[in-house]
Amino acid sequence: MVFGKRGSARLSGDFSQAPDVSTLPKKSKRLSFRSKPKPKPAGGASASAGAKAKRNVYRGAVSTRALADTWDEKDCHGVRDTVMLEDYKSDAVFLKNLEVRFQKNLIYTYIGSVCISINPYGEIGIYTNEHARMYSNVNMYELPPHVYAVADLAYRQMRDELIDQCVLISGESGAGKTEASKKILHFLTINSTNTGKAGNIRDRLMGTNVILEAFGNAKTIRNDNSSRFGKYMEVQFDHKGEPLGGRILNYLLEKVRVVSQMNDERNFHIFYYLLRGGTGGQYGLKGAPEKFVYTNQGGTSTVKTIDDAAAFKEVEAALRHEGFSSTESGNLLSAVSAVLLLGQLKFEDVGNDESRVLETPALDDLSRVIGVSTADICRVLTHRTVAAGSQHSVANLNLEKALYARDALAKSLYDRTFSWVVGRINEAIVRKDPNARNTVLGILDIYGFEIMKTNSFEQFCINYCNEKL
């Protein structure tokens, strides 16, 4: 995918080539937190309140300055920017520098304007609101490397030069790309201009993560919350740098995961959320995930870091926050249920390259959930129509082809459901005035490259895309 953007900032795991040292920007003047003395206001209650407010502002500045000094002093291990290494062309020296920094919980390192991030798989306390404010309007090299610095650079260039920007996040599966994109969005919501005219657009932009992760993320052998789709999210700003709205593009959803999972992996989170969230029964879902064909193939249905029942409540709340009506939410969960029920259908071979669907409770539940008669469901899953010009002929499907048709329908249904969810979210975060002048800051989170024992076509496409990026 090619974006017609003139500016770009990058957060990347690809560090095969180091940039020229001459590309480093000159060191700029350090940000000052000093507060100029103000004349004391006239006496009275309002004067006292005004003085108190000013003292609070000053204390906040001192606190941020102290945090910046402490944070700067802490980052004294290794080299912050690898282009400053004496032997910067050596892979061994480069990797040793990353190791030295990582052992001190310094997970970020620069290669010029590229930021390398190593996943610590734990909380290290560097993503607070105070840290986000500390990196606002500061030269990228004034403070230790951080994803917030990349976000600030992109935001300031977009706001000051009115040039669209794009932050590219690439790397191996489990490297922390999705979390990095969320931190960039968090930085923008904290530090972008806020006059109040955009209403609650900041909360809506942040709220999209809960829904997209439920429907597009899954447990893999490397990551408990791995994004199994690519996402490009653009935030639209006015000329003052205030967010007006956004838009999300999704691509390359790993549809094969819907019907097949590797050992020690799960299907998409939403299936387990629904089954354990207490409402699956009304959609014909009776039993635990271990009872369903599409959720038991990986041999594991639980994740230590995820409470499926509690997560389902969060998804319901997020859907309401994003403006989904109760009817839309019900239809959405019905579609998810239909996928699971398709996996419960049983077939038998009746000879002569024919097959039929057995009458089971799952067939009746599926018919009720999707509003299609059992006869029609059986017919479309065991026959195919061949069109030749204006002539149409119906051919029977043997057992193998019928099972393939069932799985293909399940994958297609989930893929279209996911695309509908993204489209509905876009309606919630779209800017109010489509004709207003705006600039864009895009965040491209392409899901991770990896090589499995058995690789799907979607994984091949993702690996190819990562290499090209």
Quick take:
α4 (147-161) crosses α5 (177-191), α6 packs across α7 and α6 packs antiparallel against α12. This protein has helices at 45-74, 91-102, 129-134, 147-161, 177-191, 201-216, 269-276, 308-321, 326-344, 361-370, 374-382, 399-429, 457-468, and strands at residues 9-11, 108-111, 114-117, 165-169, 217-218, 226-227, 230-237, 243-251, 347-351, 354-357, 383-388, 391-396, 439-445. 42% of the residues lie in helices and 14% in strands.
What do these coordinates show?
- This protein has 469 residues and is of the alpha/beta class.
- The protein is built from 13 helices and 13 strands.
- The protein has helices spanning 45-74, 91-102, 129-134, 147-161, 177-191, 201-216, 269-276, 308-321, 326-344, 361-370, 374-382, 399-429, 457-468, and strands at residues 9-11, 108-111, 114-117, 165-169, 217-218, 226-227, 230-237, 243-251, 347-351, 354-357, 383-388, 391-396, 439-445.
- The strands form four sheets. The chain has a seven-stranded mixed beta sheet with strand order 2-3-1-4-13-7-8, with helices on both faces. Strands 5-6 form a two-stranded antiparallel ribbon. Strands 9-10 form a two-stranded antiparallel sheet.
- The N and C termini lie close together (9 Å).
- Residues 1-10 and 12-60 have low confidence and may be disordered.
